[in-house]
Write a structure and sequence with these properties.
This protein is an alpha+beta fold. The chain is built from 9 helices and 11 strands. The strands form 3 sheets. A 6-stranded mixed β-sheet has the order 3-2-1-11-5-6, sandwiched between helices. Strands 4-7-8 form a 3-stranded antiparallel β-sheet, with no helix packed on it. Strands 9-10 form a two-stranded parallel sheet. A hairpin with a 2-residue loop joins strand 2 and strand 3.
C-alpha cells in the first residue's frame, strides 16, 4: 500500500486513520485487513472504542457499502456497527494526545447531535457535550452527584480547544415532595430543601424530573441565577419523571415523559462546591457545575450568542 504507516506507539492520529481508511475504501484499493487490524491493535484497548467512533463518523456511504461487501473485512465492519449503536463510556480515559481526545469527543457529539448542532461543530462554533452516568436521586442523602462529564469544544482550522468539567445532570431527592414527610421510608436521611417537579401522573405527588437526552440550544439567562451567569433555553424542554419515586428514571415509571411541564426551567448554572466531602449540587433537574470550577467554565464558554448542548446517556 502507498499509505505511510502511522505511528503505532499509542499517539496515533485518530482522524488521519479515519480519513485514510475511508479513502482506501472509496478508491477501491485493495483492503489489507491485517494491516488495518495491526494499527488498531497497537492502540491501548481502552482507546480502541474511541478510535472506531472517529472512523465511523467519517465513513462515507460509498466506503461503507464497499466495507460491507468484503467478506474479509467482516470484523472491521462489525466494529463500525458496534460503536454506531453502542453508548459511549462515561468515564474519562487517559488519551495519549490532546487531538485524540478532541476528535474522540467530537465524534460522540456528532453521532448524537441534531443537524444544526453538527453544523456548529464543523464550522468552529462553541458546542457542549454531556455524558450522563446514571445515578440515583437518593445518592449522597439526596444532594446529587457530580458524576457526569461536560466537554466544551471549539474547532477553528487547525486550532482545537477542549475543556472538561464535572457536571450534575440529574436532580437530588432533597427537592422531592416525598422527602417532605416521613411517610416514604426510602427518603429517610434526605434533608428536604423544597419541592420542585410536576405531578405528571396525577397521583397528588409532584415528580422529580431530568432532561431527556438530546440536543438543546442555550442562551444567556437575563439576570443570571444564584448570583452568577446562567443559561436558559428558548423553548419548552422535554423531561422524564421519576413517577414511582425510587430515585431512578426508567421505563417502569408510569407516564414518565413530560413534554411541557418543566417549561424552560432546566438551566445550566453553578452548584455547590465539589471540594467538600459531600457536595451539594443544587440541582432539581438543572445542569450544574461546581461553583469552585464555575469561573473557569465561564471563561471556556466566553460570551456566545447561543450554543448547542448535547446530552447523552453513557453506557451503564
Amino acid at each position: 500500500m502507498s499509505m505511510r504507516r502511522p505511528d503505532l506507539t499509542g499517539r496515533l492520529d485518530f482522524a488521519t486513520f479515519a480519513r485514510e481508511f475511508n479513502r482506501c475504501l472509496e478508491q477501491d484499493r485493495t483492503i489489507a485487513v491485517p494491516y488495518w487490524q495491526s494499527i488498531v491493535a497497537a492502540v491501548p484497548p481502552i482507546l480502541q472504542d474511541f478510535l472506531w467512533r472517529v472512523a465511523e463518523t467519517r465513513l462515507s456511504p460509498r466506503a461503507e457499502a464497499r466495507l460491507r461487501a468484503l467478506p474479509a473485512a467482516r470484523d472491521l465492519y462489525s466494529e463500525i456497527l458496534n460503536v454506531r449503536f453502542r453508548r459511549p463510556a462515561g468515564l474519562r480515559p487517559q488519551f495519549r494526545t490532546p487531538k485524540q481526545e478532541f476528535d474522540s469527543y467530537a465524534a460522540i457529539y456528532w453521532r448524537f447531535a441534531s443537524p444544526a448542532a453538527r453544523f456548529d461543530l464543523n464550522f468552529g462554533r462553541l458546542v457542549m457535550l454531556s455524558l450522563r452516568t446514571e445515578s440515583s436521586t437518593l445518592a449522597h442523602r439526596g444532594k446529587g452527584s457530580y458524576d457526569d462529564t461536560l466537554v466544551i469544544m471549539r474547532r477553528c482550522g487547525r486550532f482545537r480547544h477542549l475543556a472538561i468539567f464535572p457536571i450534575c445532570t440529574e436532580p437530588g431527592a432533597q427537592y422531592s415532595q416525598r422527602a417532605s414527610t416521613t411517610t416514604d421510608k426510602r427518603y429517610k436521611g434526605v434533608k428536604f430543601s423544597k419541592t420542585e417537579g410536576n405531578d405528571i401522573d396525577k397521583d397528588g405527588i409532584r415528580d422529580a424530573g431530568r432532561l431527556t437526552e438530546g440536543t438543546y440550544q442555550y442562551f444567556e439567562k437575563r439576570g443570571g441565577h444564584l448570583g452568577n451567569r446562567a443559561f436558559i433555553v428558548g423553548i419548552d424542554q422535554v423531561v422524564e419523571r421519576d413517577t414511582d419515586g425510587d430515585g431512578r428514571f426508567t421505563e417502569q415509571d408510569r407516564k414518565r415523559i413530560d413534554p411541557k411541564g418543566a417549561g424552560k426551567t432546566m438551566y445550566i448554572h453553578q452548584g455547590g462546591a465539589d471540594t467538600v466531602l459531600e457536595p451539594n449540587t443544587w440541582s432539581a433537574g438543572c445542569q450544574t457545575i461546581p461553583k469552585n470550577r464555575y469561573a473557569n467554565f465561564l471563561k471556556a464558554v466566553g460570551k456566545p450568542n447561543s450554543f448547542y448542548y448535547v446530552l447523552v446517556n453513557a453506557a451503564a
